[in-house]
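Record now logged underneath.
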Amino acid sequence: MIARVTLEIALRKEFDYLIPAEVAGQVEVGTRVKVPFGPRQVMGCVTALAEQSPHTNLRPILNVVGTQALVTPNILKLARSLAE
């Protein structure tokens, strides 16, 4: 399974990351995650889940932060509508 993640740095783009088996049950839309980005680790928010990615050599999510989703699917839908 693949997680599309918007990073908490000034990029207006989503990045695909593999969901490791040990955190698979914790990752859903709105979950905060720590992911590798270049040589550093950054925080992000899962904005979508996918079965596959057009990209190869995906890096895995490092860990899930918090126990509740940060953003609900309805709030994410509203944010996407406002952005358009």
Observations:
- The first helix runs from residue 73 to 83.
- Strands lie at 2-7, 14-18, 32-37, 40-50, 63-65.
- The mean pLDDT is 89.
